[in-house]
Model the fold of this input.
Amino acid sequence: MVALSQLDTERLFFHMGMGNRQGIDVADVARVELASQSIPSDFIKRQIIDLLDECDYLYSASKPSNTVSRFSQKEIYSGDINRAVERETVRDIRYWEELYLNACNKLANILWIPCYWNLGMERYRFSADAGTYIQALTGHADTSIASSKIEYQDLCGFCGYNL
Done:
């Protein structure tokens, strides 16, 4: 088993839409960390790094820029004022965003990890329950339930129900 470097792991988190890991299910973060540390061979690691490079390129290409790039469209106005205007169209930006999302989904499918850029994953972004959070904490589990039992008895006794 081979592992990705720390930089490549951070790039992987970014391209999976997990960024600084705030609001992400702890189990999903652990799945990505485990996947980045347990790659079966050097060949697959090289393919993953190539896909990360492709994601970097497509991410920068999908963002609109104020400078002229090779993704722009040139419009020539002639008449009283002869001038040429180069700009990026919304259709071009959407095209590059779609290519970026496809590359991210391909990377997620290879590693069997969730890609939060995918709209189908949006409902899972904030769905972590308290049990998932507590299980992710270090140390032994607190299995005491006496406090909730006492509160329940106090509440039922207060309302006139004696158990």
Q: What stands out?
A: The chain is about 55% helix and 5% strand. The helical segments are 6-15, 26-37, 42-62, 90-111, 130-136, 146-159. The mean pLDDT is 76. The radius of gyration is 25 Å.
